[in-house]
Amino acid sequence: MLIQHARHIAFAILLLPGSGCTTLEWHKTGGGEHDMDRDQAQCMAQAQFEARQRMPLQAALVPQVIIDQQGRSVVVQNRQPDSERFFLEQSLLRQCMTERGYTLQPKPPE
């Protein structure tokens, strides 16, 4: 799990220098906006389903209160954070859209 966190952090660091305020959008040569909307909705549904299969939603567990080394009370959760499932969904979405011939490109100025 630590390796997954390191990968997410490394990926985010790689994106930061070029990200600025550029908005990205899916593009496919010869594809229309209606086709892209349909494909993106299908890929998102598929990605969410597969992510839930790999990382099932867990019932909320009762938080635990522990005392840290400085004597402070700290509330901890013993469940997998939803952010990991979100990252998996986004990765699966990108994979699906890429397999359908789309690329992410900067949105042209309006």
Q: Helices, strands, pairings?
A:
Elements: H1 2-19, E1 24-27, H2 33-54, E2 64-67, E3 73-76, H3 82-99, E4 103-106
Antiparallel strand pairs: 1-4, 2-3
Helix pairs in contact: 2-3
Using brief descriptors, characterize the structure shown.
single chain, 110 residues, alpha+beta, two-stranded antiparallel ribbon, 4 strands, elongated
Give the overall shape.
Answer: elongated
> Would you identify the regions where 5 or more consecutive residues have pLDDT less than 50?
none
How many helices? The count is 3
Number of strands: 4
- Measured distance between first and last alpha carbons: 42 Å
Could you tell me the strand content as a percent range?
Answer: 5-15%
Gyration radius, to the nearest Å?
19 Å
Strand order of the largest sheet: 1-4
Instruction: Give average pLDDT, whole number.
Output: 79
Structural class: alpha+beta
**Helicity level:** 40-55%
N-to-C SSE string, H for helix and E for strand: HEHEEHE
Largest sheet: 2 strands, antiparallel
